[in-house]
Design goal:
Largest sheet: none
Number of strands: 0
Helix content: over 70%
Order of helices and strands: HH
Radius of gyration: 13 Å
Distance between the termini: 17 Å
Length: 50
């Protein structure tokens, strides 16, 4: 989870540095990882309810 927040943070920093391409790439990586973690936990044995 910390890697996801790190990727969002890097995306924000790249946006401030006016590097939109890298910002979009890191934002996409973080978003895909967030969705992957969501779908993983919906089927886990932890009984999490979303």
């Amino acid at each position: 989870m910390s890697l996801i927040f790190l990727a969002y943070g890097i995306s924000f920093v790249m946006l401030l540095k006016q590097d939109k391409r890298k910002s979009y790439i890191f934002f996409a990586i973080a978003s895909i990882a967030s969705l992957g973690m969501f779908f993983y936990h919906t089927d886990s044995t932890l009984n999490l309810s979303f």
